[in-house]
Amino acid sequence: xxxxxxxxxSTIDLAEPSVWDDGPPYELFARMQREDPVHFSPQRVAxxxxxxxxxxxxxxxxAVSRDHRTFSSxxxxxLNVDDIGVPLDVQRLQLISMDPPRHDRLKALVIKAFTPxxxxxxxxxxxxxxxxxxxxxxDRDRFDLVADVARPIPARVIGSFLGTPPEDDxxxxxxxxxxxxxxxxxIREQWTDTAAVFTEIIEYVNKQIALRRDTPGGDLVTAMMxxxxxxxxxNEFELATFxxxxxxxxxxxxxxxxxxxxxxxLRNREQFDQLRENPDLIExxxxxxxxxxxxxxxxxxxxxxxxxxxxKQIKQGDRLLLWYLASNRDEAAFENPHKFDxxxxxxxxxxxxxxxxxKHFCLGANLARMELKLWIAQxxxxxxxxxxxxxxxxxRALFLNQYNSIPVRRGS
Length: 412
Ligand code: HEM
Known about the structure:
The protein has 412 residues and is of the alpha+beta class. The chain has one domain (9-410): CATH 1.10.630.10. Helices cover 46% and strands 10% of the residues. It has 17 helices and twelve strands. The strands form four sheets. It has a five-stranded mixed β-sheet with strand order 1-2-8-5-3. Strand 6 (307-309) and strand 7 (312-314) form a beta hairpin. The longest helix is centred in the middle third of the chain and has 32 residues, at 236-267. The chain is globular. The protein binds protoporphyrin IX containing FE.
């Protein structure tokens, strides 16, 4: 757990990078849950915007997520603590930053492609993708669990859903990083013009659409092009932005959960071996990984009207962050919450890694669960002697609970 030595919580700005020097500030979150469950941080980057409220308790994250009329995803987007980075009008083109009724219309269209049955149809393909990537590191004594294993797999899984060719995976991952990791100094330096990146992606997707007009495939892009709700089809713009959302939501998230769960297992040899010897525990291990290491640290909402929460006056337009990092470790919801325990019973429908169970509940949860189970199980089976080989390195972006690098080696 990271330690931030503070007497007075009101002085804490959660967007201040030094608060995150030792990783997520879990002790601080626990104090906020007890003493200041609706905590205000003044705005660091753009002071005129008036700061943001942090919601840290499990029950509050759920209540705010479910009340989309009072707490909008569209008003100020869901990504950032401030209004820099991806422009709001671009964010609002994506399902995740839409309010009903627009949101519901689009979600009804796409949800059919992600039912457990439809996802199960891809199981063999996903197994092969994982096997192929693990083959590539099988002969190496040392490799990086993030760069060499975690990065290529989700990109190819989503690519195979969408029907894009493997040679485009790297480019697509790079583009989507711009949307979710904009705070990371390296990414910000590399990509100063997010609008230009967006235009490039739109052009790419339009080409994919044109290809399928000529030769329709059995992939998700073709299905989306032809899908209808109440006799209406998605327009080209909606298709393109949905594509971006799938690429970014599906890539970062599974990569992050795999990496963090594997790192924890490497640091907890007993549980690593226990899981290897009892493959039936894989489902519980994945849920515990999701709970302890939610890929997205938070999602934002904005108040559509003045509202009071735990005695705090939230004004119309104020931004709230729903901290899954905190709520998934709320001791009121989980016993011994900081302990990673693959035998923790009955988690599947409790943690909030996929959101607080409102209208925006993760579209890809079935796919992510299937992918993570196969992926972690295969890694343990093929590399029973995997060992940590140096210090892991975290992504410096508030929104992403993610690693850049986890060096590993074979043998003790
Ligand atoms: C471990 C993996 C994943 C995690 C932790 C995760 C987490 C989340 C979270 C927290 C939300 C927002 C919930 C809210 O605002 O209430 C979300 C929404 C979404 N996720 Fe995921 N996700 C994962 C995997 C995926 C995958 C693989 C896909 C795509 C194939 C995907 C597609 C989406 C989409 C499209 C939305 C927007 C849904 C809506 O607005 O109705 N996610 N996800």
